[in-house]
Design a protein that fits this description.
By secondary structure, this protein is of the alpha+beta class. It has helices at residues 43-49, 99-109, 116-119, 144-147, 156-161, 227-236, 250-254, 300-309, 312-319, 350-359, 380-392, 405-413, 432-439, 459-470, 474-490, and strands at 8-10, 22-28, 57-59, 65-67, 70-77, 80-85, 122-129, 132-137, 189-195, 199-204, 216-223, 241-242, 259-265, 269-274, 284-285, 324-326, 366-373, 396-403, 420-425, 495-507, 510-514, 526-527. A hairpin with a 2-residue loop joins strand 5 (70-77) and strand 6 (80-85).
């Protein structure tokens, strides 16, 4: 299938010095949570530490896996892959990358709760020689090389010298982890300064193995939570480029002579997740204000009622102004295993939703709390407010609680301490990700359910996920994908909403590429 996850290209010119050295100022809605490359899977944080850390397998601007720090890989047997490493690669401290660094990084990352879905099944990594690493899995893994786009390589000596053998927990009590503000990667940029929630400054790494077409020698990222303030900074010239442009501001920016706007389908979809495990839901009450002694979300009829009460078409057309594609399954076009004919939402039907609630034992509805991140996703507060109104029509009264992104992330990671929330799902290029990390029963030690914040459990999905993990035959994988996606849809694993467009704006003198995973390729960026 033709990939729809295209990159966004900025173009053309305004004379600022040709190909001479240039400084870029760019802004986004949130601050990176850490610069530990295995310490989080947050979309924005990952996009920023990709500037300083390289992965074994790289991604092209249109999101295709290509050689990175590994120049080739071969399947030795069903349990073992051999990676041949690029020689002469330098870390930012001047040391040379070796197979020992790669082995250290693999074994470190596989212990991360954020990466267990990708690497939890790895048994061991062994340095065959200075430029060859063998990776053995506990089970066959047909897409292990593709997963290696998330395998960021750290210097083993530097990590051990700075107390980073283990991965520090986000927000953990005690002294600050060294990797919050420091790095030693092999990427095109070095981290000069990181002041959380204030600014992050990068500078060009002259020893970068990969070269680059750009002229940016310094780049400063500024987190500006308020969208109006972020756009004002662009319009005033305070910054050169901004991400997450509010859809209502697109026309105004396009009418500004020295600015450009680019958009493309983003590498994520939005969904409301509901508690599928607890016997008693959190923050849920009857209409008299008494805490419920049940969990209505465990009943598929309640989940379906919510799905049929929330009108995603209206959200996409009116609130997002057409800058989104409505989704009906846990996958998006361009992913391996995507099933186009199944990608249809439950039809909006208020009468049917009310009837389903009554069948489930809630004829008068109930009251619950909806937890939403305030600035991480475009128009997220408006989306959640719309859902509150839509659910009120079927008797579900919703108390809306908005969180800044770091607090929202901690609520998920430290619990998850939520029974109903909005989340963006940034999966990879294969539906296997959705099964293993999102829908399989949460068991991080087994490398599954790492991002199953809904605590959803379905034995058939677990069985299918385990089979997909070890199946190499493409036709059989497609059959399993289709079966699993249908179950997720029928059982309303989540209320699937939409795939948003990635919208960035920049001065017209900027020429470069912004990938659909929100990564700005600084090494190829030109200020003309």
């Amino acid at each position: 299938m033709k990939r729809l996850l295209a990159c966004t290209a900025f173009a053309v010119s305004l004379m600022v010095g040709g190909a001479h050295a240039a400084t870029l100022r760019f802004a986004g809605p949130v601050s990176p949570l850490t610069f530990d490359p295995h310490g989080t899977n947050d979309f924005t944080t990952t996009a920023l530490f990709r500037q300083v850390y390289d992965s074994l397998v790289a991604l092209t601007p249109d999101m295709k896996p290509v050689p990175g720090l590994a120049i080739s890989w071969t399947k030795k047997d069903d349990l073992t892959w051999t990676f041949k490493l690029r020689e002469g690669v330098k870390f930012h401290d001047g040391s040379t990358m070796t197979a020992d660094d790669v082995v250290f990084s693999i074994m470190r990352a596989k212990g991360s709760s954020y990466y267990s879905a990708y690497f939890g099944q790895i048994d061991k990594a062994v340095a065959v020689d200075g430029s060859t690493v063998e990776v053995s899995s506990k089970q066959p893994d047909p897409i292990l090389p593709e997963k290696m786009v998330r395998m960021f390589i750290m210097s083993k000596p530097w990590s051990l010298a700075n107390g980073l053998e283990a991965i520090p927990s986000l927000g953990a009590a005690g002294s600050e982890a060294y990797s919050l503000r420091h790095e030693n990667g092999t990427g095109p940029m070095k981290l000069r300064q990181h002041d959380p929630n204030v600014k992050t400054v990068f500078e060009k790494f002259d020893g970068y193995w990969g070269g680059g077409k750009g002229n940016v020698t310094e780049a400063t990222y500024v987190p500006i939570t308020s969208a109006p303030t972020r756009i004002s900074a662009l319009l005033s010239g305070e910054v050169d480029l901004v991400s997450d442009v509010p859809y209502q501001d697109i026309e105004r920016i396009e009418a500004t002579p020295n600015l450009q706007v680019r958009k493309s389908p983003q590498l994520l979809w939005m969904q409301f997740e509901m508690d599928g495990s607890r016997d008693v839901a959190l923050d849920t009450w009857d209409k008299q204000g008494n805490p419920l002694k049940t969990n209505p979300f465990k009943d598929v009829r309640v989940r379906q009622a919510i799905a049929q009460a929330i009108d995603a078409d209206t959200i996409a057309k009116r609130i997002l102004r057409g800058n989104a594609r409505v989704v009906g399954i846990p996958s998006i076009p361009g992913f391996g295993g995507y099933q186009e004919d199944l990608d249809k939402r439950w039809p909006t039907d208020v009468a049917k939703a009310k009837a389903l609630l009554a069948e489930a034992g809630y004829p008068d509805g109930f009251t619950t709390q909806l937890n939403c991140p305030s600035e991480r996703y475009a128009n997220s507060e408006d989306i959640c407010k719309a859902a509150v109104s839509m659910l009120a029509r079927i008797g579900i009264d919703v108390k809306l609680k908005m969180y800044v992104w770091p607090e929202f992330a901690k609520m998920l990671v430290n619990g998850p301490n939520t029974s109903f929330h909005l989340i963006g799902v940034a999966s990879s290029w294969d539906v296997q990700d959705a099964f293993i990390s999102l829908m399989m029963t949460r068991d991080t030690k087994a490398g599954q359910g790492s991002f199953n914040w809904a605590l959803w459990h379905n034995g058939e999905i677990d069985k299918i996920g385990q089979e997909i993990r070890v199946t190499f035959d493409p036709a059989k994988r497609q059959e399993l994908y289709r079966k699993g996606i249908q179950i997720a849809k029928d059982q309303v694993y989540a209320v699937f909403l939409y795939q948003p467009f990635l919208v960035w704006s920049a001065k017209k003198n900027i020429d470069g590429t912004l990938r659909s995973d929100s990564t700005l390729l600084l090494q190829d960026l030109k200020l003309n």
